[in-house]
Design goal:
- Residues 3-282 form the FAD/NAD(P)-binding domain.
- Belongs to the NADH dehydrogenase family.
- Keywords: FAD, Flavoprotein, Oxidoreductase.
- This protein has helices at residues 11-20, 46-51, 115-118, 125-136, 151-163, 184-196, 237-240, 281-299, 337-354; strands spanning 2-7, 29-35, 40-41, 60-61, 69-73, 76-80, 85-88, 93-95, 98-101, 105-107, 120-121, 143-147, 168-172, 200-202, 207-211, 214-217, 220-223, 226-229, 233-235, 259-260, 263-268, 315-320, 324-329, 332-336.
- The chain is of the alpha/beta class.
- The protein has a six-stranded mixed beta sheet, with no helix packed on it. A five-stranded parallel beta sheet has the order 11-18-12-13-14.
- It starts with a strand and ends with a helix.
- The structure holds flavin-adenine dinucleotide.
- Residues 8-13, 34-37, 41, 43-44, 46-47, 75-76, 102-104, 122-123, 151-152, 155, 236, 238, 269-271, 279-282, 284, 317 line the site of flavin-adenine dinucleotide (FAD).
Length: 355
């Protein structure tokens, strides 16, 4: 039996499974899925988990069951390509014939002193639960500093302000306008929403240091009861420790067939891979489809395509609390109730197909 090992049951890992199971896996291939969490987590909803507006159970989806699939629960600590092994924290090792690494990302602190120590995070389920606990135990009038006004910072600030109007929320962003990756019209729409909901936007900010309950913006101290960091991501540290070419965010450079340039049995998936688009769940899923095609061709003794057409992304949708939203669909900016309904619909469909 050949062993296909998948590290990470996130959006990318789950899509690999749904492409192969139940009926598309050759009889002589078994799959080992490894994750430190015993279920698939809906990371795109961590902002709501942290804000306390959905329950933990709503972001969990069971892994599939299949006679050729083994799910291994545990923490991956390193990859040993020369021995074709994955090392686990409990000293166990897992051998592979083909390996797909989809371990996601972690916060990037841009060398800001104290940021890793004194800020909360929404990049993993464990960290989002801690953030939930810190935010939801705050008394009225407490100050929450959110650093970074990209998609996740905006979703967290809006969700929290809608459910806890008694909090004083400050959203710090480097740019002249929040959501700098989106068209001006969208940024302005979202800024107006924040003005109406008493969220203070602090543009042109530069967080130079963080201490316990204090953010330094351009070296000026600002007291905060809780600080959440949403100001950047980098590849999972297991991947960053690998001895192969990386981009500025620690993501691994890959070939058009999605494997490492010097090892055709190690595929890099999702937020761990250096790709020409911003990391997203959609991108991880698009890549998963192409990786499965490469594997299936090889299992059939055929030559995989030398390259694939560009991965088609449908757009981006963000929420502003439970009723309003914003986003880009097929290059068109959409705002308001329709954008929010579309986002909820996509989540519902995802759970329906994977639950
Ligand atoms: C608040 C927020 C909102 C977002 N909204 C959107 C959106 O609307 N649309 C969109 O497309 N994208 C969105 N994203 C981005 C999206 O969530 C990621 O790009 C996507 O999850 C990447 O998928 P992945 O498979 O690479 O990794 P992940 O989905 O992060 O999965 C990684 C898996 O690896 C496991 N893991 C990590 N380290 C280890 C280890 N050492 N040992 C064992 N297991 C490990 C984790 O438990 C996890 O299951 C959002 C992200 C956030 C934080």
């Amino acid at each position: 039996m050949k062993n296909l090992v998948i590290l990470g049951g996130g959006y990318g890992g789950m899509k690999i499974l749904s492409e192969l199971l139940p009926n598309n896996l050759p009889e002589d291939v078994k799959i080992t899925l490894v994750d430190r969490v015993p279920y698939h987590c809906l990371k795109t909803e961590y902002y709501a988990l942290a804000a306390g507006t959905i329950s933990d159970k709503e972001v969990r989806v069971d892994f599939p069951e299949h006679p050729q699939l083994t799910v291994k629960y545990g923490e991956v600590i390193s990859i040993e390509p020369q021995d074709k092994k994955v090392l686990m924290k409990d000293d166990e090792s897992i051998s592979y014939d083909d390996l797909i690494i989809g371990l996601g990302c972690e916060d990037k602190y841009h060398n800001v002193p104290g940021a890793d120590q004194f800020t909360y995070s929404i990049q993993s389920i464990e960290k989002s639960r801690k953030t939930y606990s810190a935010l939801n135990n705050l008394g009225p009038g407490s100050v929450v500093g959110i650093v970074g006004a990209g998609l996740s910072g905006v979703e967290l600030a809006s969700e929290l302000s809608e459910s806890r109007s008694d909090l004083n929320i400050k959203l710090f962003d480097r740019g002249k306008h929040i959501l700098s990756a989106f068209p001006d019209r969208l940024s302005k729409y979202v800024e107006n929403w924040f003005v109406k909901h008493n969220v203070e936007i602090i543009n042109n900010s530069n967080i130079t240091r963080v201490e316990e309950n204090t953010l330094y913006n351009n070296d000026k101290p600002i007291k905060c009861d809780v600080i959440v960091w949403t100001a950047g991501i980098q590849a999972n540290k297991v991947v960053q420790n690998m001895d192969t070419e990386k981009d500025r965010s620690g993501r691994l450079v890959i070939t058009p067939r999605h494997h490492l340039p010097n090892d055709e049995n190690i595929f890099i998936l999702g937020d761990c891979a250096s790709l020409p688009h911003a990391p997203s769940a959609q991108l991880a899923e698009g890549q998963a489809v192409q990786i499965v095609e490469v594997l299936r061709k090889r299992w059939n003794g055929e030559e995989p395509p030398a390259e694939f057409p560009p991965i088609k992304l449908k757009g981006v949708l963000g929420s502003l609390g439970k009723k309003q939203g914003f986003g880009m669909m097929a290059d068109r900016a959409i705002t308001g109730r329709v954008a929010r309904l579309l986002k909820s619909g996509i989540l519902w469909l995802y759970k329906f197909h994977n639950g």
